[in-house]
Amino acid sequence: MRSLLLFIIHPVVSFSPLEASRMTSNVNIRSGVEFHPTKPGINFRVSSTSATLSWFPRESLHQNVMEMKIAHAPSAAMEPQVVGDTIQLFWEKQGTSAQFSMEATVQTTNEIVPVRDRIPFPIQHHLSTEVSAYLQSGRIANHSQHVQQVARSLVTGKDDLYHAVFAIADWASTNIAYSLASEGQPAIQSASQVLQSRFGKCDEITALFVSMNRAVGIPCRFALGYSYTDNELFKQRWGAHSWAEVYFPGVGWVPFDITYGQYGYVDAGHIMLSVSEDAEPSSVEFSASGREFELFGCEVDTSVMPRNVQPAYEGRSPTIDICLEAQAKEVGFGSACVVVATLINNRDHYVCTQLNLGKPKGIKLLNSDTKKNVLLNPGEVMEIPFFFKMDEDYKSGYSYEYTFSISSNLTSREEQAIIKVKEGAPLFYAKM
């Protein structure tokens, strides 16, 4: 049977986990079942109870489980056992219920998983049976013909695995709108439905990303757990979340969170509690043996208490440097102008970042969007031009000053460039 998840969060940090480079948290998970007679007045007996728990903190490249303890009520018939990706629990001396509680200490980081060397695409490495399981089509992460066609078109001509994965992530981020429209529905949208509707919530967007990777031979799996958000759509800052992990031969499972724009890493506010081939795993399943009884599932209560939060960027060099410069400091009324962002990857591994461009109202951006995903090769320097069109309706004899800005989710600084618009200044024309 499946039980209902109830999320209870108690944040105690003085600033957002989104700003943390490292965080230690206490994670508490509790659940249980009650036993009722099949008919009123009937004497029932429960001889043994067991549970399969798939919802607990996992070791990963960004998460370290420092301690984990499990307590049973009534007492345990035997010690908990790890079986595959689950923990098996057992009870003896049955009464009218069986319960357990888990306490874990988890350390998470926002460190980028370093992929330093080019990995050929299509993947040429032999994949183990365990990894190959994450190439299969599922009920939610399905491989419709449309999904396959779009995925293949995105990776055509690419011979670098990181570039292929980034192309899929960038497309999903740009073309699929985040929406809670399917919240509360009896079933979530499948990957093919998300591709058709062009909207979805985190698990649905993740399903499409997972499916598109699998469709071109890249192992990809679901990661489920908790994350912190400052999105105004949510009343609670912490809640259930889903993202993806992509397998890179010789490196391991690398996180990609499409809804957060975090590629190659996740922030320290992500706590992974489950991995899955498809998007609908059960958190805990109970079974019992005996006579004349029924099982009633209790809710799974999960709480996270962050502590020992280390601010990001403290005491370390920036991952990337960004410079923003206007090619012409002064332009005339109605002129085009160019603002160039120069990005420098200070690391010896691939780095993805999401740029956010700030522009004055009324200024038209000609060649891009104000949000742009960028992939930098190890040590790469990249120039990105942004083309704008100034207004023609200015008052003669006046000059105007406009400030453009750019920021990245990997830096704490915002870079700016200033352009003056005045009568008689040079006119430029953009050829797109």
Helix/strand class: mainly beta
Number of domains: 3
What is the second-level CATH architecture of the largest domain?
A: Roll
Beta-strand fraction estimate: 35-45%
Report on the structure:
Strand 5 (81-83) and strand 6 (86-91) form a beta hairpin. The protein folds into three domains: 5-110 and 281-311, Immunoglobulin-like, CATH 2.60.40; 129-266, C8orf32 fold (Roll), CATH 3.10.620.30; 320-422, Immunoglobulins (Immunoglobulin-like), CATH 2.60.40. The strands form six sheets. Strands 1, 2, 4, 7, 16 and 17 form a six-stranded mixed beta sheet that branches. Strands 13-12-11-10-14 form a five-stranded antiparallel beta sheet. With 432 residues, it is mainly beta. Helix 2 (145-155) packs across helix 5 (202-215), helix 3 (161-175) runs antiparallel to helix 5 (202-215) and helix 4 (191-197) packs across helix 5. 38% of the residues are buried. The radius of gyration is 26 Å and the shape is elongated. The longest helix is centred in the middle third of the chain and has 15 residues, at 161-175. Mean pLDDT is 88; it is low at 1-14. The protein contains five helices and 26 strands.
